[in-house]
Every structure is written in structure tokens, then in C-alpha cells.
Amino acid sequence: MALVPYENHTSLPGLSKLHEPSATFHFAKHKIHIRQDWKRLGVAAVVWDAAVVLCTFLELGSIALEGSSAVELGAGTGLVGIVAALLGAKVTITDREPAVEFLESNVQANLPLDFQARTKVTELTWGESLDRFERGGYDLVLGADIVYLEETFPDLLKTLEYLSSERTVILLSCRIRYERDQDFLKMLQQGFTVEEVHYEPERDVHIYKAQKCRVKEDL
Fold first, then answer.
1. Neighbour count for residue 43 (Cβ, 10 Å)
2. Where does the sequence pass through the membrane (predicted)?
3. Strand order across the 205-212 sheet
């Protein structure tokens, strides 16, 4: 969500890879080359560990992707959406307007034309102009490292509520860095059932699965 440029602190352990112009991954029997641009777009234009862990989880096949409709929120470089598409999903890959052109360049560079035909890249600012999307029209909602700015939580929840039906599976991959991250999960639990389905200790990344609570009908 936040397009925040940072100074190049390459001396800090673990951060130097974020300043590389590209990163290479192997998922879904494809080599994926992701272009990065930290100086211009900040956190929106680098691959975070949460995205890599979520891609690995998707590749394990716990969630059926073939023929499903999916939407990725705050896609950044587009790695998760690209992998979901390669695994058979029809994917709408979204981020804020300043990141869309960069995002689309990665998608076009890494998806064969037949996969691109069922993949859409478009602007989505959480909580705004949601009527451009089908209400409750997705089987899967994906988000990697999108839970970190407290001021965005209400709009993120509004967006998840709009995009989801009772059949929709939401997968959120994130680190729990601060108390506010736990607060978001509590907010999410007010309208969704939430469970942790995976934890990667090496990267300290959690994956949470959420589904909209069923509305009880009056007798």
C-alpha cells in the first residue's frame, strides 16, 4: 500500500538484497525474474520474505488454484500473483496507481501470453472505487506483507469484506512485528473466522487463512 522510498542502507544485514535491481525465483516449474526499484517506489517495488513464503505455500497445493478466480492486494512486484497464475488461477493483480506500470512490467516479463490472457493488472486503492470489482466474486484473496500501516486497516478490512463471499478464502502472509499487527487480526475476527495455517520460522512469517462468517438466518 505505502510507496515509501528509503535510503540505501546496504550495510544492514538482510537489506542489501532489497536494493538489487532484480531477484530470481523458481516456482511452478518456471524461472521468474523480478525487477526491483527500491529508490523509486520503496517498499512497493521489492520482494519481501512474506511473498516468497506465500508462493511456496501456494505451490504446495493446500489451496486449489486451477480454474479459480483470485485477486492479489498490494501486489508490489507481482510475484505472488504471477505464481498464482502459473498454478492455474485467473488472477487480478492490484496495487495503488503509482505502482501499476512497474507491476505490469513484471507480469508481462514472466507470464507466457496464454497466461497473460487470464491475468489482469489494475489499480486498487483500498476502500476506494470498489464497485469496479465484482462484490464477493473471488474464490481467493491474496496479500503478502500488507498488514503494517495501522491507518490503512479500516480500508483494508472494507476491501476484504467487499471482495469476499462466504466461499472466499483469504490468505494473508505477514510478520507479526508489533502489537498493532495483532490488533488487525482481532479486527479481522469480528467478521471472519481466522486461523494460522503455516509458519516459516527461518523467515518468521505467518500465513493466516480467513473466511467470512456465515450470517445466521432468523428462525
1. 20
2. 41-64, 70-89
3. 119-123, 90-95, 69-73, 140-144, 169-174, 205-212, 192-200
**CA 195 to the chain's CA centroid:** 17
DSSP letter, residue 12: S
**Contact between 36 and 18 (Cβ < 8 Å):** yes
* Separation of CA 102 from chain center: 16
| CA-closest candidate to residue 97, choices 123, 128, 71 | 123
Q: Please determine, for residue 9, whether its predicted confidence score (pLDDT) is greater than 60.
A: no
Alpha carbon of residue 16 to chain centroid: 22
What confidence category does residue 187 fall into, taking pLDDT thresholds of 50, 70 and 90? very high
CB within 8 A of 50, min separation 6: which ones?
A: 144, 145, 173, 174, 175, 203, 205
Predicted confidence (pLDDT) per residue in 111-169, tens digit: 999 999 999 999 999 999 999 999 999 999 999 999 989 999 999 999 999 999 999 99
For residue 77, give its domain range.
Answer: 16-212
What CATH number did the domain enclosing 96 receive? 3.40.50.150
Sign of CA dihedral 180, 186, 191, 196: positive
Q: Quick one: cell of 124?
A: 486498487
DSSP class of residue 136? Answer: T
Residue range 181-203: average pLDDT? 96
Residue 219 inside a domain? The answer is no
> Domain count of the chain?
1
* Helix, strand, coil % over all residues of the chain, rounded to 5: 35, 25, 40
**Helix, strand, or coil here: 105?**
helix
